[in-house]
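Suppose you are handed only two things: the residues of a chain and a line of SMILES describing flavin-adenine dinucleotide. What would the bound structure be? This form records exactly that question and the answer produced for it, so the two can be stored side by side and reused later without any lookup.

QUESTION INPUTS
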Amino acid sequence: MDFNDSPEEAEFRETARAWLSAHAPTAVTGRSTRHADLMAEAKAWQAKKADAGYAQITWPKEWGGGGGTPIQSVIFSQEEAKFGVAYGFFGIGLGMCVPTVMAFADEATKKRFVGPALRGEEIWCQLFSEPAGGSDVAGLRTRAVKEGDEWVINGQKVWTTGAHYSDFGILLTRTNPDAPKHKGLTMFWIDMHDPAVSVKPIHQMSGSSDFNEVYFTDLRVKDSQRLGAVDDGWKVALVTLMNERLAVGGSTGPNYAEIMELARTVNDGEEPALNNQAFRQKLADWYVLSEGLKFTRFRTMTALSRGQTPGPESSIGKIISANQLQDLSHQAMELEDQFGIIVDPKISPMEAAFQQSAMWAPGLRIAGGTDEILKNIIAERVLGLPGDIRVDKDLPFKDAPAGR
Ligand SMILES: Cc1cc2nc3c(=O)[nH]c(=O)nc-3n(C[C@H](O)[C@H](O)[C@H](O)COP(=O)(O)OP(=O)(O)OC[C@H]3O[C@@H](n4cnc5c(N)ncnc54)[C@H](O)[C@@H]3O)c2cc1C
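ANSWER OUTPUT
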Protein backbone atom coordinates (compact mmCIF):
# COMPACT_ATOMS: atom_id res chain seq x y z
CA MET A 1 0.00 0.00 0.00
CA ASP A 2 1.27 3.46 -0.90
CA PHE A 3 -0.04 6.29 1.32
CA ASN A 4 1.43 9.19 -0.61
CA ASP A 5 0.53 10.84 -3.88
CA SER A 6 3.13 10.12 -6.57
CA PRO A 7 4.81 13.35 -7.80
CA GLU A 8 2.40 13.42 -10.79
CA GLU A 9 -0.61 12.84 -8.52
CA ALA A 10 0.52 15.59 -6.13
CA GLU A 11 0.88 17.97 -9.07
CA PHE A 12 -2.60 17.06 -10.34
CA ARG A 13 -4.05 17.60 -6.83
CA GLU A 14 -2.40 21.02 -6.58
CA THR A 15 -3.69 22.09 -10.01
CA ALA A 16 -7.21 20.83 -9.23
CA ARG A 17 -7.22 22.58 -5.85
CA ALA A 18 -6.09 25.88 -7.41
CA TRP A 19 -8.77 25.60 -10.11
CA LEU A 20 -11.45 24.81 -7.51
CA SER A 21 -10.37 27.77 -5.35
CA ALA A 22 -10.68 30.08 -8.33
CA HIS A 23 -13.95 28.75 -9.75
CA ALA A 24 -16.08 26.81 -7.21
CA PRO A 25 -19.32 28.56 -6.19
CA THR A 26 -19.81 29.29 -2.48
CA ALA A 27 -21.43 26.26 -0.87
CA VAL A 28 -23.75 25.96 2.10
CA THR A 29 -23.05 22.73 3.99
CA GLY A 30 -25.69 20.63 5.71
CA ARG A 31 -28.23 20.37 2.90
CA SER A 32 -29.04 17.63 0.43
CA THR A 33 -26.76 17.78 -2.61
CA ARG A 34 -29.90 17.02 -4.65
CA HIS A 35 -32.13 19.77 -3.27
CA ALA A 36 -34.36 21.12 -6.09
CA ASP A 37 -33.25 24.71 -5.35
CA LEU A 38 -29.70 23.77 -6.31
CA MET A 39 -30.46 22.56 -9.85
CA ALA A 40 -29.58 25.80 -11.69
CA GLU A 41 -26.27 26.33 -9.87
CA ALA A 42 -25.42 22.60 -10.19
CA LYS A 43 -25.95 22.74 -13.98
CA ALA A 44 -23.83 25.88 -14.29
CA TRP A 45 -21.05 24.24 -12.21
CA GLN A 46 -21.19 21.07 -14.31
CA ALA A 47 -20.82 23.09 -17.54
CA LYS A 48 -17.84 24.95 -16.06
CA LYS A 49 -16.18 21.64 -15.09
CA ALA A 50 -16.85 20.27 -18.60
CA ASP A 51 -15.11 23.29 -20.17
CA ALA A 52 -12.05 22.66 -17.96
CA GLY A 53 -11.96 18.88 -18.62
CA TYR A 54 -12.94 18.04 -15.02
CA ALA A 55 -16.53 16.86 -15.67
CA GLN A 56 -15.56 13.25 -16.46
CA ILE A 57 -11.83 12.99 -15.99
CA THR A 58 -11.48 9.38 -17.21
CA TRP A 59 -13.51 9.81 -20.41
CA PRO A 60 -11.59 10.20 -23.67
CA LYS A 61 -11.05 13.78 -24.83
CA GLU A 62 -12.97 13.17 -28.06
CA TRP A 63 -16.09 12.61 -25.93
CA GLY A 64 -15.49 15.79 -23.93
CA GLY A 65 -13.74 14.07 -21.03
CA GLY A 66 -10.38 14.88 -19.45
CA GLY A 67 -8.48 11.89 -20.91
CA GLY A 68 -7.15 11.23 -17.38
CA THR A 69 -6.79 8.26 -15.05
CA PRO A 70 -9.17 6.80 -12.41
CA ILE A 71 -6.82 7.97 -9.63
CA GLN A 72 -7.02 11.55 -10.94
CA SER A 73 -10.79 11.26 -10.87
CA VAL A 74 -10.68 10.13 -7.22
CA ILE A 75 -8.28 12.98 -6.34
CA PHE A 76 -10.55 15.56 -7.97
CA SER A 77 -13.63 14.16 -6.13
CA GLN A 78 -11.76 14.38 -2.82
CA GLU A 79 -10.80 18.00 -3.45
CA GLU A 80 -14.23 18.94 -4.79
CA ALA A 81 -15.91 17.45 -1.69
CA LYS A 82 -13.91 19.91 0.47
CA PHE A 83 -15.58 22.79 -1.37
CA GLY A 84 -19.08 21.37 -0.76
CA VAL A 85 -20.00 21.56 -4.45
CA ALA A 86 -20.19 17.85 -5.27
CA TYR A 87 -23.85 18.04 -6.42
CA GLY A 88 -25.81 14.80 -6.57
CA PHE A 89 -27.81 15.30 -9.78
CA PHE A 90 -25.37 13.92 -12.36
CA GLY A 91 -23.61 11.00 -10.64
CA ILE A 92 -26.03 8.24 -11.67
CA GLY A 93 -26.19 9.44 -15.28
CA LEU A 94 -22.50 10.10 -15.80
CA GLY A 95 -21.25 7.33 -13.52
CA MET A 96 -23.57 4.55 -14.63
CA CYS A 97 -26.15 5.23 -17.37
CA VAL A 98 -24.13 7.13 -19.98
CA PRO A 99 -21.12 4.74 -19.74
CA THR A 100 -23.61 1.94 -20.48
CA VAL A 101 -24.92 3.88 -23.50
CA MET A 102 -21.31 4.46 -24.60
CA ALA A 103 -20.59 0.73 -24.36
CA PHE A 104 -23.68 -0.53 -26.22
CA ALA A 105 -25.25 2.21 -28.42
CA ASP A 106 -24.42 3.05 -32.05
CA GLU A 107 -22.27 6.10 -32.93
CA ALA A 108 -25.23 8.37 -33.75
CA THR A 109 -26.90 7.68 -30.38
CA LYS A 110 -23.64 8.27 -28.51
CA LYS A 111 -23.09 11.57 -30.38
CA ARG A 112 -26.63 12.65 -29.51
CA PHE A 113 -26.41 11.94 -25.77
CA VAL A 114 -22.87 12.05 -24.40
CA GLY A 115 -22.15 15.80 -24.76
CA PRO A 116 -25.39 17.15 -23.25
CA ALA A 117 -25.11 14.70 -20.31
CA LEU A 118 -21.49 15.66 -19.68
CA ARG A 119 -22.36 19.37 -19.59
CA GLY A 120 -25.29 18.74 -17.20
CA GLU A 121 -27.83 19.85 -19.81
CA GLU A 122 -29.63 16.48 -19.71
CA ILE A 123 -29.99 14.20 -16.70
CA TRP A 124 -30.32 10.41 -16.68
CA CYS A 125 -31.79 7.91 -14.22
CA GLN A 126 -31.37 4.18 -13.67
CA LEU A 127 -34.63 2.17 -13.91
CA PHE A 128 -33.68 -1.24 -12.48
CA SER A 129 -35.33 -1.88 -9.07
CA GLU A 130 -38.94 -3.03 -8.80
CA PRO A 131 -41.19 -4.17 -5.96
CA ALA A 132 -40.24 -7.79 -6.80
CA GLY A 133 -36.70 -7.10 -7.99
CA GLY A 134 -34.38 -5.13 -5.67
CA SER A 135 -31.47 -7.10 -4.23
CA ASP A 136 -32.45 -9.76 -6.74
CA VAL A 137 -32.80 -7.35 -9.66
CA ALA A 138 -33.01 -10.25 -12.13
CA GLY A 139 -36.41 -11.01 -10.54
CA LEU A 140 -37.95 -7.94 -12.23
CA ARG A 141 -41.31 -8.18 -14.02
CA THR A 142 -41.62 -5.10 -16.26
CA ARG A 143 -42.51 -6.64 -19.64
CA ALA A 144 -41.33 -5.57 -23.07
CA VAL A 145 -43.13 -7.24 -25.99
CA LYS A 146 -42.00 -6.82 -29.60
CA GLU A 147 -44.53 -5.41 -32.11
CA GLY A 148 -42.99 -4.84 -35.55
CA ASP A 149 -40.06 -2.47 -35.17
CA GLU A 150 -41.22 -1.35 -31.72
CA TRP A 151 -41.36 -2.71 -28.20
CA VAL A 152 -44.40 -2.17 -25.97
CA ILE A 153 -43.49 -1.81 -22.31
CA ASN A 154 -45.74 -2.22 -19.26
CA GLY A 155 -44.79 -2.38 -15.60
CA GLN A 156 -43.44 -0.51 -12.61
CA LYS A 157 -40.09 0.55 -11.17
CA VAL A 158 -39.42 1.89 -7.67
CA TRP A 159 -36.72 3.86 -5.80
CA THR A 160 -35.67 5.49 -9.07
CA THR A 161 -33.39 8.30 -7.92
CA GLY A 162 -33.96 11.55 -9.79
CA ALA A 163 -36.68 10.22 -12.15
CA HIS A 164 -38.68 13.41 -11.45
CA TYR A 165 -35.97 15.67 -12.90
CA SER A 166 -34.48 13.22 -15.43
CA ASP A 167 -34.73 13.57 -19.19
CA PHE A 168 -33.72 10.01 -20.09
CA GLY A 169 -33.33 6.65 -18.38
CA ILE A 170 -31.90 3.20 -18.94
CA LEU A 171 -34.63 0.63 -18.41
CA LEU A 172 -34.15 -3.08 -17.72
CA THR A 173 -37.12 -5.20 -18.86
CA ARG A 174 -38.17 -8.83 -19.14
CA THR A 175 -38.46 -9.97 -22.73
CA ASN A 176 -38.45 -13.77 -22.30
CA PRO A 177 -40.29 -15.24 -19.27
CA ASP A 178 -39.58 -18.79 -20.54
CA ALA A 179 -35.83 -18.38 -19.99
CA PRO A 180 -34.11 -18.48 -16.55
CA LYS A 181 -34.33 -15.09 -14.82
CA HIS A 182 -30.89 -13.76 -15.83
CA LYS A 183 -31.30 -14.86 -19.44
CA GLY A 184 -34.57 -13.20 -20.53
CA LEU A 185 -33.80 -9.52 -19.85
CA THR A 186 -33.31 -6.67 -22.35
CA MET A 187 -32.10 -3.07 -21.78
CA PHE A 188 -33.44 0.07 -23.50
CA TRP A 189 -32.88 3.80 -23.21
CA ILE A 190 -36.12 5.74 -22.86
CA ASP A 191 -37.39 9.32 -22.93
CA MET A 192 -38.65 10.16 -19.44
CA HIS A 193 -40.93 12.88 -20.88
CA ASP A 194 -42.98 10.35 -22.90
CA PRO A 195 -46.64 10.59 -21.76
CA ALA A 196 -46.69 6.78 -21.27
CA VAL A 197 -44.17 7.24 -18.42
CA SER A 198 -45.69 8.36 -15.13
CA VAL A 199 -43.39 9.46 -12.27
CA LYS A 200 -44.62 9.60 -8.68
CA PRO A 201 -42.13 11.04 -6.15
CA ILE A 202 -41.81 9.19 -2.82
CA HIS A 203 -42.01 11.46 0.21
CA GLN A 204 -39.08 10.75 2.55
CA MET A 205 -38.74 11.34 6.29
CA SER A 206 -36.21 14.11 5.55
CA GLY A 207 -39.02 16.06 3.88
CA SER A 208 -37.43 15.82 0.44
CA SER A 209 -38.24 13.45 -2.42
CA ASP A 210 -35.10 12.06 -3.98
CA PHE A 211 -36.60 8.96 -5.52
CA ASN A 212 -39.78 7.80 -7.22
CA GLU A 213 -42.17 5.16 -8.37
CA VAL A 214 -42.23 5.04 -12.19
CA TYR A 215 -45.06 3.43 -14.16
CA PHE A 216 -45.05 2.43 -17.85
CA THR A 217 -48.41 2.06 -19.60
CA ASP A 218 -48.05 0.84 -23.18
CA LEU A 219 -44.80 2.76 -23.56
CA ARG A 220 -43.62 2.32 -27.17
CA VAL A 221 -39.89 2.40 -27.86
CA LYS A 222 -38.09 1.79 -31.14
CA ASP A 223 -35.93 -1.29 -31.50
CA SER A 224 -33.04 1.13 -32.18
CA GLN A 225 -33.36 2.20 -28.49
CA ARG A 226 -32.25 -1.26 -27.42
CA LEU A 227 -28.87 -1.43 -25.66
CA GLY A 228 -27.20 -4.80 -26.29
CA ALA A 229 -28.77 -7.94 -27.73
CA VAL A 230 -32.33 -9.13 -27.08
CA ASP A 231 -32.44 -11.24 -23.86
CA ASP A 232 -28.83 -10.27 -23.07
CA GLY A 233 -29.73 -7.36 -20.77
CA TRP A 234 -28.05 -8.93 -17.73
CA LYS A 235 -24.67 -8.46 -19.41
CA VAL A 236 -25.56 -4.80 -20.07
CA ALA A 237 -26.79 -4.33 -16.47
CA LEU A 238 -23.49 -5.71 -15.14
CA VAL A 239 -21.62 -2.97 -17.03
CA THR A 240 -23.84 -0.39 -15.27
CA LEU A 241 -23.32 -2.01 -11.87
CA MET A 242 -19.54 -2.42 -12.36
CA ASN A 243 -19.30 1.33 -12.95
CA GLU A 244 -21.06 1.89 -9.62
CA ARG A 245 -18.14 0.20 -7.89
CA LEU A 246 -15.69 2.85 -9.05
CA ALA A 247 -17.67 5.48 -7.17
CA VAL A 248 -15.08 5.89 -4.42
CA GLY A 249 -13.99 9.31 -3.26
CA GLY A 250 -14.64 11.84 -0.53
CA SER A 251 -16.48 11.33 2.73
CA THR A 252 -20.26 10.83 2.89
CA GLY A 253 -21.03 13.11 5.86
CA PRO A 254 -19.85 14.25 9.28
CA ASN A 255 -17.37 11.99 11.08
CA TYR A 256 -15.70 11.65 14.50
CA ALA A 257 -13.90 15.01 14.19
CA GLU A 258 -17.18 16.91 13.77
CA ILE A 259 -18.93 15.11 16.65
CA MET A 260 -15.87 15.68 18.86
CA GLU A 261 -16.14 19.39 18.09
CA LEU A 262 -19.84 19.30 18.93
CA ALA A 263 -19.17 17.50 22.24
CA ARG A 264 -16.74 20.25 23.26
CA THR A 265 -19.43 22.88 22.85
CA VAL A 266 -22.51 21.23 24.43
CA ASN A 267 -22.86 20.35 28.09
CA ASP A 268 -23.86 17.02 29.57
CA GLY A 269 -24.96 18.17 33.04
CA GLU A 270 -22.37 20.65 34.32
CA GLU A 271 -19.54 19.52 32.07
CA PRO A 272 -18.85 19.42 28.33
CA ALA A 273 -20.20 16.19 26.85
CA LEU A 274 -16.65 15.40 25.76
CA ASN A 275 -15.81 14.57 29.42
CA ASN A 276 -18.49 11.86 29.57
CA GLN A 277 -16.76 8.44 29.77
CA ALA A 278 -19.45 6.57 27.80
CA PHE A 279 -19.25 9.17 25.03
CA ARG A 280 -15.44 8.98 24.98
CA GLN A 281 -15.69 5.21 24.54
CA LYS A 282 -17.91 5.66 21.50
CA LEU A 283 -15.63 8.37 20.14
CA ALA A 284 -12.69 5.96 20.37
CA ASP A 285 -14.68 3.32 18.44
CA TRP A 286 -15.55 5.80 15.66
CA TYR A 287 -11.93 6.92 15.47
CA VAL A 288 -10.72 3.32 15.07
CA LEU A 289 -13.36 2.62 12.41
CA SER A 290 -12.52 5.83 10.55
CA GLU A 291 -8.83 4.95 10.51
CA GLY A 292 -9.69 1.45 9.22
CA LEU A 293 -11.82 3.02 6.49
CA LYS A 294 -9.05 5.41 5.58
CA PHE A 295 -6.60 2.54 5.08
CA THR A 296 -9.18 0.52 3.12
CA ARG A 297 -9.66 3.57 0.88
CA PHE A 298 -5.86 3.82 0.48
CA ARG A 299 -5.89 0.20 -0.68
CA THR A 300 -8.48 1.08 -3.35
CA MET A 301 -6.50 4.16 -4.35
CA THR A 302 -3.27 2.17 -4.56
CA ALA A 303 -5.01 -0.32 -6.90
CA LEU A 304 -6.29 2.54 -9.08
CA SER A 305 -2.89 4.23 -9.04
CA ARG A 306 -1.33 1.02 -10.38
CA GLY A 307 -3.95 0.83 -13.14
CA GLN A 308 -5.79 -2.08 -11.45
CA THR A 309 -9.56 -2.36 -10.89
CA PRO A 310 -10.61 -2.29 -7.21
CA GLY A 311 -11.84 -5.68 -6.00
CA PRO A 312 -14.89 -6.77 -3.98
CA GLU A 313 -13.17 -5.61 -0.76
CA SER A 314 -14.45 -2.11 -1.57
CA SER A 315 -17.84 -3.43 -0.26
CA ILE A 316 -16.34 -3.23 3.25
CA GLY A 317 -16.12 0.56 2.99
CA LYS A 318 -19.82 1.07 2.38
CA ILE A 319 -21.02 -1.22 5.18
CA ILE A 320 -18.72 0.39 7.75
CA SER A 321 -19.22 4.01 6.70
CA ALA A 322 -23.02 3.79 6.36
CA ASN A 323 -23.48 2.12 9.77
CA GLN A 324 -21.04 4.48 11.44
CA LEU A 325 -22.78 7.49 9.90
CA GLN A 326 -26.13 6.33 11.27
CA ASP A 327 -24.75 5.66 14.76
CA LEU A 328 -22.75 8.88 14.95
CA SER A 329 -25.58 11.08 13.64
CA HIS A 330 -28.07 9.68 16.16
CA GLN A 331 -25.60 10.31 18.97
CA ALA A 332 -25.04 13.87 17.72
CA MET A 333 -28.77 14.58 17.68
CA GLU A 334 -28.96 13.30 21.27
CA LEU A 335 -26.22 15.73 22.26
CA GLU A 336 -27.91 18.61 20.46
CA ASP A 337 -31.10 17.96 22.45
CA GLN A 338 -33.92 20.28 21.19
CA PHE A 339 -31.54 21.92 18.68
CA GLY A 340 -31.30 18.56 16.90
CA ILE A 341 -34.51 19.40 15.03
CA ILE A 342 -32.84 22.23 13.09
CA VAL A 343 -32.87 21.43 9.40
CA ASP A 344 -32.00 24.81 7.91
CA PRO A 345 -28.23 25.10 7.37
CA LYS A 346 -28.56 28.90 7.32
CA ILE A 347 -29.61 28.80 11.00
CA SER A 348 -26.98 26.29 12.07
CA PRO A 349 -24.85 24.36 9.55
CA MET A 350 -23.62 21.82 12.13
CA GLU A 351 -27.09 20.89 13.48
CA ALA A 352 -28.48 20.69 9.94
CA ALA A 353 -25.57 18.51 8.77
CA PHE A 354 -26.17 15.93 11.53
CA GLN A 355 -29.94 15.90 10.95
CA GLN A 356 -29.34 15.52 7.21
CA SER A 357 -26.98 12.58 7.73
CA ALA A 358 -29.30 10.92 10.30
CA MET A 359 -32.06 10.96 7.68
CA TRP A 360 -29.79 9.84 4.84
CA ALA A 361 -27.80 7.06 6.56
CA PRO A 362 -30.55 4.36 6.53
CA GLY A 363 -30.90 4.81 2.75
CA LEU A 364 -27.15 4.54 2.34
CA ARG A 365 -27.32 1.13 4.05
CA ILE A 366 -29.73 -0.04 1.30
CA ALA A 367 -28.75 1.76 -1.92
CA GLY A 368 -26.28 0.01 -4.24
CA GLY A 369 -26.49 -3.23 -2.21
CA THR A 370 -27.93 -3.70 1.30
CA ASP A 371 -25.73 -4.53 4.31
CA GLU A 372 -26.73 -8.20 4.01
CA ILE A 373 -25.99 -8.39 0.27
CA LEU A 374 -22.59 -6.76 0.78
CA LYS A 375 -21.87 -9.23 3.60
CA ASN A 376 -22.72 -12.04 1.16
CA ILE A 377 -20.28 -10.53 -1.38
CA ILE A 378 -17.54 -10.25 1.24
CA ALA A 379 -18.22 -13.80 2.48
CA GLU A 380 -18.17 -15.32 -0.99
CA ARG A 381 -15.70 -13.24 -2.95
CA VAL A 382 -13.27 -11.96 -0.32
CA LEU A 383 -13.30 -14.78 2.27
CA GLY A 384 -14.11 -17.63 -0.17
CA LEU A 385 -16.97 -19.01 1.97
CA PRO A 386 -19.74 -21.17 0.36
CA GLY A 387 -22.19 -19.24 -1.85
CA ASP A 388 -25.71 -18.03 -1.03
CA ILE A 389 -28.40 -20.60 -1.94
CA ARG A 390 -29.96 -19.67 -5.31
CA VAL A 391 -32.74 -22.19 -5.89
CA ASP A 392 -34.40 -20.38 -8.82
CA LYS A 393 -31.22 -19.70 -10.81
CA ASP A 394 -31.89 -22.23 -13.59
CA LEU A 395 -35.72 -22.32 -13.55
CA PRO A 396 -37.69 -20.67 -16.37
CA PHE A 397 -38.63 -17.25 -14.89
CA LYS A 398 -42.38 -17.91 -15.24
CA ASP A 399 -42.02 -20.97 -12.95
CA ALA A 400 -39.87 -19.19 -10.32
CA PRO A 401 -41.63 -17.64 -7.26
CA ALA A 402 -40.87 -14.05 -8.46
CA GLY A 403 -42.32 -14.77 -11.91
CA ARG A 404 -45.62 -16.28 -10.83
C1 LIG B 1 -31.31 5.96 -1.48
C2 LIG B 1 -31.66 4.90 -2.50
C3 LIG B 1 -31.52 5.18 -3.85
C4 LIG B 1 -31.82 4.20 -4.80
N1 LIG B 1 -31.72 4.53 -6.13
C5 LIG B 1 -32.06 3.62 -7.07
C6 LIG B 1 -32.02 3.94 -8.46
O1 LIG B 1 -31.70 5.08 -8.85
N2 LIG B 1 -32.38 3.01 -9.37
C7 LIG B 1 -32.75 1.75 -9.00
O2 LIG B 1 -33.03 0.94 -9.88
N3 LIG B 1 -32.80 1.40 -7.68
C8 LIG B 1 -32.48 2.31 -6.72
N4 LIG B 1 -32.57 1.98 -5.37
C9 LIG B 1 -33.07 0.67 -5.00
C10 LIG B 1 -32.02 -0.24 -4.40
O3 LIG B 1 -31.16 -0.73 -5.39
C11 LIG B 1 -32.78 -1.35 -3.67
O4 LIG B 1 -33.52 -0.76 -2.62
C12 LIG B 1 -31.85 -2.40 -3.09
O5 LIG B 1 -31.22 -3.11 -4.11
C13 LIG B 1 -32.60 -3.36 -2.15
O6 LIG B 1 -33.73 -3.88 -2.78
P1 LIG B 1 -35.16 -3.86 -2.05
O7 LIG B 1 -35.38 -2.49 -1.52
O8 LIG B 1 -36.14 -4.43 -3.01
O9 LIG B 1 -35.00 -4.81 -0.81
P2 LIG B 1 -35.09 -6.42 -0.83
O10 LIG B 1 -34.19 -6.94 -1.89
O11 LIG B 1 -36.52 -6.83 -0.88
O12 LIG B 1 -34.48 -6.77 0.58
C14 LIG B 1 -35.27 -6.77 1.80
C15 LIG B 1 -34.38 -7.26 2.93
O13 LIG B 1 -33.98 -8.64 2.66
C16 LIG B 1 -32.56 -8.76 2.69
N5 LIG B 1 -32.12 -9.70 1.66
C17 LIG B 1 -32.53 -9.76 0.35
N6 LIG B 1 -31.88 -10.76 -0.29
C18 LIG B 1 -31.04 -11.33 0.60
C19 LIG B 1 -30.09 -12.40 0.54
N7 LIG B 1 -29.88 -13.08 -0.61
N8 LIG B 1 -29.40 -12.71 1.67
C20 LIG B 1 -29.61 -12.03 2.82
N9 LIG B 1 -30.50 -11.02 2.96
C21 LIG B 1 -31.20 -10.66 1.87
C22 LIG B 1 -32.04 -7.35 2.35
O14 LIG B 1 -30.74 -7.14 2.85
C23 LIG B 1 -33.08 -6.47 3.06
O15 LIG B 1 -32.76 -6.33 4.43
C24 LIG B 1 -32.27 2.93 -4.39
C25 LIG B 1 -32.42 2.66 -3.03
C26 LIG B 1 -32.14 3.63 -2.09
C27 LIG B 1 -32.33 3.31 -0.64
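WHAT STANDS OUT: The chain has a mean pLDDT of 90. The longest strand covers residues 150-161.
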